[in-house]
Amino acid sequence: MDVPHLITKMATLQRGAALFVLAWLLVQVLARTPFLNAPLQRFSRAVTPMLPWWLLACAVLYAGAYLAYPTHADHVEASVLVLGEHVRRGLPLYPTDLGYTMDGLLYGPLLAVLNALVLSLSIDAFLGSKLLALASTVVAVGLCATQLRDRCALLYLGFLGAFDLLFFNRAEPHLLLLTALACRCMGMSDAGRRAWLLGLLAGLAASLKVHGVLYIAAVYLWAQPDGLRRPALLLRVAAGALVTALPWFLLPGISLPGYLHFLKLASLHGIEPRILLDNGIFLLALWLPLLVLRCPWRSVLGIAALELLVAVLGAKKGAGCWHLLPFVVLHAHMLDALLSQRSPANRHPRAELMALLPMLSLAMSTAFALAPGIRHHLQQRDDIAQARVALRELASSHPGLVLATGAEQGYELSYLRIDLEQLGVRQIDVPAFIDLQWAGVQDAPLAEALGQCRIPHLAVPRGEPAFANLSGYSGRPLFSDAVRLAFAARFVRVVQTAHFDLYRCQAPT
Predict the structure, then answer these.
(1) Residue 21 in contact with residue 285, Cβ under 8 Å?
(2) For residue 400, what is the DSSP state?
(3) Residue 502's beta-bridge partner residues?
(4) From edge to edge, which strands make up the β-sheet containing 500-505?
(5) Burial of 252 by CB count in 10 Å (0-12 exposed, 13-18 middle, 19+ buried)?
(6) Distance CA 378, CA 376 (A)
(7) Which long-range contacts (CB under 8 A, 24 or more apart) does 264-267 make?
(8) Which of 175, 254, 386, 509 has the fewest CB atoms found within 10 Å of its own CB?
(9) Of 226, 139, 151, which Cα lies nearest the Cα of 175?
(10) Are 254 and 248 in contact (CB under 8 A)?
């Protein structure tokens, strides 16, 4: 995904949440007008049943177009898949000596392990990773659909509609599933057994993202309001979390000190005020239904505090309001519990409208957010497939081929590097270096490798200058002048295809 596309997507999601907040306030005013109240109720009852089908149609169209697409839609997905290959081969997942590859993402080990399992199957790497993410999202939504009893609470899941990254090879689909499973545990009468299960889920969530434990902690506070005053239950949760969070570090190449080192680098990223504002708007949209229904505030203070913490943690460079998505599942269950306690006569007079609003506003956001992706996947599918074939042919005749970025136009071609990694040739991880550079890591190892011809061949998007892409964080060139000078001094173009310029390194004589 290029930087302009990412900015457009974030603006769409922000407008969706803001639209919901404004629409909510408008309906609260209109519904208090006697002669408008009845027409609004009739409109809600007529439109509400159609909106889930609209969201489902958008999701199915996007999923179909995306599964047929020969690569990924987001650059982090490609990096996660490569890390899965590293785990499969026993290579360091959190290297302390980065070398020219600049690899290593700020994810827990479980996501890479899941991708390693996919890569061990006889299935295309891109398709397998997409199916893995899609399965988690479908199962999570299915669990909610079978458990939520009130239609208003079920429609509340419309908040998920505008987020195409729930189809992506990232941590979010799996965190959504773990949160849905945690909510499934809320009905258990045995508090001790429930604490064990929530602990196991918390450990898995932390193994995806270090703050993933907060999603399960919020479910624990909802299921056990006095949970912080129950040491025995807290110990069971902690023990369960350790059982599922630590074993991954026993696998070859997965180092706990290395992971902690990467987390320390992430702490240097700082907070982006604009992203924090986006997160705040989305969080307000999540809480409005519960606030209007007068949810007992004492019972949700701890949950609100955890969500605010995630909103802050998810406000660093490269993050966003998708960090709050697992809380949508919890809020839907909270709303369901609140409404189920009231008889039809005691329901809020505008309950149907409150269900309609998130669906209407986010259904529009879904159309705007998913439609460009569907169009892109359909239009570019054949071209990317041809580029993938061409890259494989170049790799077969030019050993040690490394895929480099050019400017912005051909950035998506860098997602194809998993094909070269599977040939045993280590590749440059651009998304990982974007994070690392923002934390102060320099690209001197890459400049040295280029200058010493340790990279024999480079494939660059056709007609683009090598290593000229910009950082999505700073807006300035990602790679240093030293990298571009080393490339210019040593590499000459020897082959040009429809998609790539191939360069060979000329060692100094």
Answers:
(1) yes
(2) T
(3) 459, 495
(4) 401-403, 457-461, 500-505, 491-496
(5) exposed
(6) 5
(7) 265/106, 265/435, 265/436, 265/439, 265/440, 265/441, 266/106, 266/316, 266/435, 266/439
(8) 509
(9) 139
(10) yes
Q: Give whole-number Cα distances, 62 to 129, 138, 237, in Å.
A: 16, 13, 38
Which pLDDT band, with edges at 50, 70 and 90, does 356 fall under? low
Calpha distance 448→453 (Å, rounded): 8
What is the arithmetic mean of pLDDT over 416-436?
93
Tokens of 457: 């061949």
Given this model, what pLDDT does residue 28 score? 56
Tokens of 210: 């270090």
Task: Read off the pLDDT of each residue in 137-148 and give the average, rounded to a whole number.
Answer: 91
Q: How confident is the model at residue 12 (pLDDT cuts 50, 70, 90)?
A: very low
- The residue type found at 302 is G
C-alpha torsion angle, residues 10, 11, 13, 19 (rounded to 10): 160
- What values do phi and psi take at 118, rounded to 5? -60, -40
Residue 351 is classified by DSSP as H
Helix 444-451 vs helix 481-490: crossing angle, to nearest 10: 10
Can you tell me the distance from the alpha carbon of 326 to that of 130, in angstroms, rounded to the nearest whole number? 19
- Tell me the pTM: 0.89
What pLDDT was estimated at residue 5? 43
Provide CB contacts within 8 A for 6, sequence distance 6+: 472
What is the spatial distance between Cα 95 and Cα 101, in angstroms, rounded to a whole number?
10
The two counts, helices (H) then strands (E), for the chain are 20, 4
Q: Which residues contact 93 (CB under 8 A, 6 or more apart)?
A: 83, 86, 87, 104, 109, 112, 253, 254, 255, 258, 259
Residue 22 confidence (pLDDT):
56
90 touches 253 (CB < 8 A): yes
Q: For residues 227, 198, 80 and 424, what is the CA-based torsion angle, rounded to 10 degrees?
A: 130
CA distances from 444 to 399, 448, 453, 469, 470 (A): 24, 6, 14, 17, 17
Question: In whole angstroms, what is the distance from residue 87 CA to residue 421 CA?
Answer: 12
CA dihedral 89, 93, 99, 101 (to 10 degrees): 80
Q: What is the DSSP letter of 469?
A: P
Cβ atoms of 486 and 495 within 8 Å: the answer is no
- Residue 149: count of CB within 10 angstroms of its CB: 11
Tell me the per-residue pLDDT of 36-88, one tens digit each, with 9 for 90 and over.
566 666 766 666 667 677 777 777 888 888 898 899 988 999 999 999 999 99
SS3 state at 495: strand
